[in-house]
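User: Design a sequence. Structure:
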């Protein structure tokens, strides 16, 4: 089992940057696929980015490609989401999630992840 705690959210102006971090407990962090999801008020939770256990494979949703980058540091049990050129439509609660599954097309689905953090609020003002 792994416990996840997100940090780094906040209020930023359009065009600004934030770096989210997700710290994981446990000694097997490097064996987990890690993902970032977000949920805006009144909307379903949506995939943002995923990274394989080694960091060799990543995937980002189309609307954030070129602006957001997922990365991980297995020595620090932490996964990051660097967010640049933020837009008001990026406003949401951002969640970190962990999966024991293999990296595949299915890893964009929330149901593939067994462990979730409580989320961190990101608000982008226009």
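Assistant: Done.
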């Amino acid at each position: 089992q792994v416990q996840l705690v997100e940090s780094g959210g906040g209020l930023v102006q359009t065009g600004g940057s934030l770096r989210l971090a997700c710290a994981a407990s446990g000694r097997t962090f490097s064996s987990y696929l890690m993902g970032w999801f977000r949920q805006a008020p009144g909307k379903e939770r949506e995939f943002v980015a995923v990274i394989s256990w080694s960091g060799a494979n990543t995937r980002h949703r189309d609307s954030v490609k070129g602006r957001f980058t997922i990365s991980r540091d297995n020595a620090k049990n932490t996964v990051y989401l660097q967010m640049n050129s933020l837009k008001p439509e990026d406003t949401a609660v951002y969640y970190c999630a962990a999966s024991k599954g293999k990296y595949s097309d299915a890893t964009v689905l929330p149901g593939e992840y067994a462990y979730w953090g409580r989320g961190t609020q990101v608000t982008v003002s226009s």
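The chain is about 0% helix and 45% strand. The CA atoms of residues 70 and 81 lie 5 Å apart.
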